[in-house]
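User: Structure please.
Assistant: Input sequence and predicted structure:
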Amino acid sequence: MNKQDLVQDLIKNNVQYGHKTSRYHPDMAAYIWGARNGMHLIDLNKTAFMLQHACDQIRKVMELGGQILWVGTKRQAQKSILKAAQSLNHPYVIHRWIGGTLTNSDQVKKAVTKLLHMRDAIEKPLPHMKKKQLSMLSKELERLEKNVSGVVRLKPMPSILVVVDVKREMTSIKEAKKCGIPVLALVDTNSSTELVDTIIPANDDSPKSISFVLECLSEAAQEGFEVFKKNNPNFEKEQQERSPRQHGQGFHDNRKRFANNNSSVDSKAPATQASAADVNPEAESKISKSIATGQRRGTPLSSGSRKPGSKGGSSRPMSKTTKK
């Protein structure tokens, strides 16, 4: 795209508006054009140049088969981040950055595995599961979906981190720097550029501004990915071979074997789901009788079944007292 046309598009999408002059950060002095009505304005010529440079960097990463981690937890950026990441089938974080996502990835993998297992359990529940168990599982699944559903596809180390709002996502940026991952970020006039490798000076509070910048980056990433697929014709076949064996498939197989009463996994060890009556019919009959009479072990006797002459109140024995 021509630089002049890009500048006009930046103006239409309100990329030039910064923060109040009282919230100015010295690191952004080189990217500020001026101030009007107590608000800084960003130099769009420099923004256009830096945006083109960022697109070239994203394109090179995708040409080498790299992976981008998209991070934007503020409300204005969530939809744009989700759209860009899903169009490329890349990992993303839009609700909350889990501490240790990059520096302690083993624990995050455990949470991802638990998420996949619980998805399988909710979709195809076992016959003996009750409504309360399913309700508890669905609540836990909702929490995991909100926190770690975006990082299911995350590789141990992504190639680059794309961030919206440096001040809000400082934890993710610090983790990326510890792991040696380059950071590309939308930086407003109130933020520091110390830990950012590639800067895009832009308004990070406007949904239009964020959406336009991320669309440019995602288009560049798609172009690079097309080049990668041309250079690697067997890439799609390899992906299809890997896809059947997912994290939760072994768990699903075990549940399927356990739930199928009539089939056997092995002739020596048939996988059947036996009830308590099949294992011990006498014990089952005793339990059913106790339930019918209200005298199951662990439950107090009802008022209608108390022994004659007994007093109401606590079932604990009364302490002995001596009169003086």
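The CA atoms of residues 257 and 268 lie 14 Å apart.
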